[in-house]
Amino acid sequence: MKGLFARKPLHLIMQEPEVEQHKLKRVLGPWGLISLGIGVIIGAGIFVLSGQAAATYAGPAIVLSFIISAIGCGLAGLCYAEFASMIPISGSAYTYAYATLGEFLAWIIGWDLVLEYLFGASTVAVGWSGYVVSFLKDFHINIPDAFCQAPLSYSVTDGWNATGAILNCPAIFIVGLMTALLVIGIRESTRVNNVIVIIKLAVIVLFIGVGVFYIKFANWSPFLPDNTGQFGSFGWSGVVRGAGVIFFAYIGFDVVSTAAQESRNPQRDMPIGILGSLVICTIIFILMTGVLTGIMKYTNLAVPDPIAVAVNAAGPGIAWFRPFIKIGAIAGLSSVVLVLLMAQPRVFFSMARDGLLPAGFARVHPRFKTPYIPTILTGCIAAVVSGLFPINILGELVSIGTLLAFVIVCVGVLVLRYRHPEIPRVFRTPWVPFVPIAGALVTLLQMVFLPFDTWMRLFVWMAVGFIIYFFYSRKHSRLRILSPEE
């Protein structure tokens, strides 16, 4: 049992980026990291899941759900910023947990990050497909439903059902395209992301600026719909459950931490990238959801493209804006797929470097200097998942995985403060222990309010992870089989 909680010494973690076969290109500055964060935060959470969460859980009070999630994210973001400046290594929360809480908990968080990033990319790809299909219809290009929808659907009342569709081909296409770009290089990927971020921010500002003139105050009444008698279905329980579901919208800032090894000055720039992108996106989310539920009644927003539907509902005076909204959404979702598919291989990369996954996962392409094997594998799995499963199931899975990661990071900061207070910290989380404890409690509360079926899927996922750990990873751990000198 003692070996399960063996911690990886910080001085060894800090030396690893200098090993030649594990070197990645350091090309990202503070604005590049902020752009990376915005690129992944503003995506399916606001363009897709916000409408479904409003229609199903919170009504116009979905604005409060975003505020609750922002509070939890802000607290967790402060903890992430301290870790990222102190341990500027690829691997995000996995690496932090290995240094503070031990190997077994590091494995749990690493496996949990697979759920967050890989399934996150799949979720966004499904949302991208919905907007692309809708955009093409405007030009009388119709993709048959059989080839743009998941063959499986799920509802709380009816369970799993076959839809009659064959495969969601557009979702598979975008995953394949972004995977190829990521294999080519981080610099090229970042340039594409920067262009996309500019496009979608312009469209969002335009939507808020124009849409505010089409708000019907009657659509905000009641602002907080009465509970239906079922826990989590409107009322305050619905607001908190909605916060847990749309928490998916905020996963971007922890993705920034996976790029630490490709940052030029990670100790200074990582906190700027994490907290800067989080603040900007929170303001945008509050404004967008307020305008969205003001333009259209929340009961009509359970659609794959709620922003575009709201523009249609506003009337002919704003109809000219519909193509721009869809272009912004398509661009925005593209950047989210790109950044999530970038993050996941870097977690695999760190786990393989520690021996917890096969060595091939830590191989860097000799020309492109990217972890190409886990990138290709991640892309293939994400393509299959996005082609087969509906967005609501994927979104809730990603939310619970993200929340679990945040709980562990908040606890990890507290543990390291008391265990190793002497370690230099360029950025220090303020008001310790209040901030880490509050961050852990707020995120844990949102987990509790998620549907029971989502918890069951998390347990199944973690059970698979335990099997892999005890039958493979534990036996190949470099921390166990090598001496400190080796």
Overview of the structural elements:
The chain has 18 helices and two strands. Helix 2 crosses helix 8 (186-211) and helix 4 (62-86) packs across helix 16. The protein has a two-stranded antiparallel ribbon with strand order 1-2. It has one domain: Amino acid/polyamine transporter I, CATH 1.20.1740. By secondary structure, it is mainly alpha-helical. The mean pLDDT is 82. It is globular and about 70 Å long.
Question: End-to-end distance, in Å?
Answer: 24 Å
CATH class: Mainly Alpha
Major β-sheet, in short?
Answer: 2 strands, antiparallel
Structural class: mainly alpha
| Rg, alpha carbons | 21 Å
Strand content: under 5%
- H/E element string? HHHHHHEEHHHHHHHHHHHH
CATH superfamily: Amino acid/polyamine transporter I
CATH architecture: Up-down Bundle
Instruction: Provide the residue-averaged pLDDT.
Output: 82
**Major sheet: order of its strands?**
1-2
Got a strand count?
Answer: 2
Number of DSSP helices? Answer: 18
Q: What general form does the structure show?
A: globular
Helix content range: 55-70%
Total domains:
1
| CATH third-tier fold name | Amino acid/polyamine transporter I
Low-confidence segments, given as residue ranges, are none
